[in-house]
Amino acid sequence: MIALSDYAGIAPKGDLLLIHKLAEKLQGRKFLHINSTKSGGGVAEILQQMIPLLVDIGINAVWDVIEGDSDFFNMTKKVHNSMQGMRDPITEAAWEHHYEINMANADKLDLDADCVLIHDPQPVALIERRTDNCWMWRCHIDISRPQPDTWNKLRPYVEKYDMAVFSVSKFAQSIQPDKFLIPPSIDPLSEKNRNLEQEEIDEVLENYKIPKDKPILLQISRFDRFKDPIGVIQAYRLVKKYNDCRLILAGGAATDDPEGEMVLQEVMEYAANDPDIHILLLPPFSDKAVNALQRAADIIFQKSLKEGFGLTVTEAMWKEKPVIGGNVGGIPIQIVHGATGFLVNSVEGAAFRTKQFLNNPAMIKRMGERGREHVRMNFLITRQIRDYLSAWFFLENGRRNTIEL
Ligand code: UDP
């Protein structure tokens, strides 16, 4: 069992002190988190790590997952796509189904908590069953330019919350509830991020039959068009003309993402049996494999076209890897261009920066070290726990500008 004290010497001391103070005030209170999948994607990833830590500090933290049928998840994928700007019209009947599924879940769930934190649009309508407790809506996706039709449908729900939490300021919409900016985070002690012995890394490479003969480029992501796996292959092909290398595209499926299979097929066709492209379909909970692949890689891509935050960027930086990331969503708050990695806007840009890194090992080392420190100061799980507890405490204490602990 992991305890908050295990983070001493890793996380910034101020964060740990503040967590202790807030935990004293919120002892034994119930903090309910609800999302739509137990595994796959960043939200589940964070909750798996955060819930036990909240329990360790005396908060009665509970995590529930809503259930839905395939019509529901096809519809919520459209909501996800169109909130991220894609045109993907949703029928009135589908919205009614969304509401009904939410209400069916509300009948089954115990929503009686001191603070309820609803993650993303899938369970957003649960707010209709709120009582006089504190409700926060946590948006993890890139809603800098949502399709107005979809936002107009979600907005009335969001307006009923006490607070909306966004990862990055450009996602925050002009809405009634208080707004908080709380970027996501990684757990440095989890199986995905802990230090690994070289033998453990080699074992994973052997398992997936990946030779260590050439520099390894890696992108780990769900097979989703917004992650631009095809663009990554195009960049690799441009690099390959000058620098020999391998490319690994590794990803799994999320139970709330019905499009993964189709995108994976497209990617495999595009890779066209190139023996230096390794497409790995990872089963759920492949944390050690993800960790080992990230540590084995020389350069890590997250060439997203839209991105809520990009935990894969954080994970890579924590492992002192140079990251080339799309200049979108939460990636620019992690990659300080030219200092902790490079931001790119095109396939050509990604290829150019890859070659620059491959030809300059000293730059890889320098940026890797800075990246890890940037994550340590800003994107560890302790900082996120600090922020959630602060937001909850702020709501309960009359939203005063100054709160004494
Ligand atoms: N991930 C994983 N296995 C996979 C693909 C992704 O464990 O096959 C993890 C990845 O390491 C990261 C999270 O899922 O922790 C993805 O979060 P991110 O914010 O990058 O993207 P999202 O999937 O939430 O859009």
Describe the overall structure.
Strands 2-1-3-4-5-6 form a 6-stranded parallel β-sheet, covered by helices on one side. By secondary structure, it is of the alpha/beta class. Helices cover 41% and strands 14% of the residues. The chain contains 13 helices and 12 strands. The protein has 2 domains: 199 residues, Rossmann fold (3-Layer(aba) Sandwich); 181 residues, Glycogen Phosphorylase B (Rossmann fold). The model has no long low-confidence stretch (mean pLDDT 95). The structure holds uridine-5'-diphosphate. Uridine-5'-diphosphate (UDP) binds next to α2, β8 and α10. The site of uridine-5'-diphosphate (UDP) has 18 residues, from α2, β8 and α10.
